[in-house]
Amino acid sequence: MNDPIIVSVGGGKGGVGKSTVTSYLGAALSKKKYSVGFVDADLGGANLHSFLGVKRPRTGLQDFLSGRVKTLGETAVETCIPGSWLISGASDILELANPKFGQKQRLISSLRKLNADYIFVDLAAGTGFHVTDFYASFSHGIIVSDSLPISIENAYGFLKNGILRGLTRLFPDRKDVSRFVQRLSDSKAAEGFATVSEMLSAAARVYPEETTLMKQWLADRRNFLVLNMIKDKTDIGVGRRFVELVRKYLSVSLSYIGYICYAPEIRTAVRESKPAVLSPSASVSGCFEAIAANLCALTRG
Ligand SMILES: Nc1ncnc2c1ncn2[C@@H]1O[C@H](COP(=O)(O)OP(=O)(O)OP(=O)(O)O)[C@@H](O)[C@H]1O
Ligand SMILES: [Mg+2]
What we know:
Elements: E1 5-10, H1 18-31, E2 36-40, H2 48-51, H3 61-65, E3 77-78, E4 85-87, H4 101-111, E5 118-122, H5 129-137, E6 140-145, H6 149-169, H7 175-182, H8 196-206, H9 208-220, E7 222-230, H10 233-250, E8 254-261, H11 264-271, H12 282-300
Parallel strand pairs: 1-5, 1-6, 2-4, 2-5, 6-7, 7-8
Antiparallel strand pairs: 3-4
């Protein structure tokens, strides 16, 4: 059995389609005979189950985080996608919206032991600490955005915070290095850095070994972009410009793996609680098949 490829799905802005992309992309991969696991990491407002035909999950992350069950695998339930499983979030237990560091670490290391070809971790909206922590913990991440400037701005903030979090997590006992990296977060301050590469050049003079580790982490990361709710050709170009911006300022590669057209059927399915992932129209399934093919090519060679 190979280790699963764990892909977090985030994007900063609420309602841009993170859960939609997670579920439809999982269904497209399942059609290609990959086994798929889903984890709803939106700890304050879990709703991924309703995209996957699960009415009320009988168990979920809360049982693992509270210690009621020993292994994370015990909390998985079947979904409408054949051969897939879902570990649901906890929408009604507020304290779990802010898990402790140890709880999160236990969750992250347990996830790596689960059985599936791909595991998708659907993140909450926002660019805060808990969300970006999940993003930084897995080597693969999909950023979902629509083409509106505010969404792109949020997606950029999300990725930037994820990178900051990932770089500082490399040195948990080194406050000095963390503080140095954090100077990226305020580019307008006298001591701030405008780009990741500027920060790395300065760091190389003070912390040469740590800088090598940071460069390695950045090079190992696989970031993918999916643009959602596309209405015309101009929208598609927004993704290409975003990729350029990220390359220039954040020094990570962001592969634009596809876009999804605005499709009223997706909205209707959610409103009527139908597990539409199994029977999308030709245009919607075409978009997701293309994204699935690109993801496979980039993650499996
Ligand atoms: N391509 C699309 N065309 C039409 N409607 C869409 C599309 N993608 C998503 N939607 C609709 O937009 C709404 C938000 O989608 P979704 O819940 O997937 O977003 P989200 O980013 O996961 O939200 P949250 O931040 O609350 O977790 C849903 O009603 C969904 O049906
Ligand atoms: Mg969601």
